[in-house]
Amino acid sequence: MSQTTPADEIADDASTRPDGAEEVERKKPPLLELSDVVVRYGKIEALRGVSVTVHAGEIVTLIGANGAGKTTTLKTISGLRPVHSGDVRFQGESVVGLPAHELVALGISQAPEGRGIFPGMTVMENLEMGTYGRTRVPRAVIDQEIDHVFSLFPRLADRRTQSGGTLSGGEQQMLAIGRALLAAPKVLLLDEPSMGLAPQLVAQIFSIITEINRQGITILLVEQNAAQALRRAHRAYVLETGRVVKAAPAAELLADETVRNAYLGGNVES
User: Fold this and answer.
1) Tens digits of residue pLDDT in 106-146
2) pLDDT of residue 75
3) 52 Cβ contact list (under 8 Å, min separation 6)
4) In a 10 Å sphere around its CB, with 0-12 CB exposed, 13-18 middle and 19+ buried, how is residue 93 labelled?
């Protein structure tokens, strides 16, 4: 694989930009909506009135410093953190209080921070775990979906009998995303997919994220590499200490001097 420099990672070319946000249907209710959500860890408010909308067909990204509440937002959507107040609606219906496995069945799937694969299981066994609960889906359909994951991540196909714990960091990230896809999500939650990866693998992972979206899957992305995330997304939210402080089209935030200085090093060409 050819080497990729950090500058190459954020090159503004047609292959990295998502389909135009103006083409995303927004006349219908949002696919996913958080309204004034408050989440507490004991007496500490991790989310303080967060409101986020995600429409079908979009890539929406959350950016912010460590501790801003980005991962807590995804965990709340996935049913892993209880909502103190506010509402989370999916396909127009409140899902507050539903257990995580029911949310997966509804169409919310997450590739978590740290990947969360099963290290003692093979690649194939890890992928099969993504289909858990889809007992009514014909086996032939599942096999086709696994083949599709292998087409997105050829490395996984080559390592299908290899234990997950022996994979490289990039391969484990591919496995985590592939497993999440096999839950047949309507919205895919991705938490720090580039964390700890070499630059060339970062570029590859983001290219695949764009391709997954082009194939019809809505994505809510939390990402430390703000430049890459804003290049790929339709819209973005900036979180600070549990609050949304900016919300705009991703290209607009990419050009915002305050955002550039805070999260992009101030030297990204617009």
Assistant:
1) 999 999 887 789 899 999 999 999 998 888 899 999 999 99
2) 96
3) 32, 33, 34, 60, 62, 73, 220, 237, 244, 247
4) exposed
Contact 219, 180 (CB under 8 A): no
> In sequence order, what are the residues at sequence separation of 6 or more whose Cβ sits closer than 8 angstroms to the Cβ of residue 5?
199
Q: Give the CATH number of the domain where residue 253 resides.
A: 3.40.50.300
Does 148 fall in a domain?
no
The verdict on residue 92 lying in a domain is yes
pTM of this prediction exceeds 0.90: no
Given a cut of 80, whether residue 268 has pLDDT beyond it is no
Domain count, the chain: 1
Q: Is residue 73 part of a domain?
A: yes
| Range of the structural domain that residue 20 is part of | 6-119+185-263
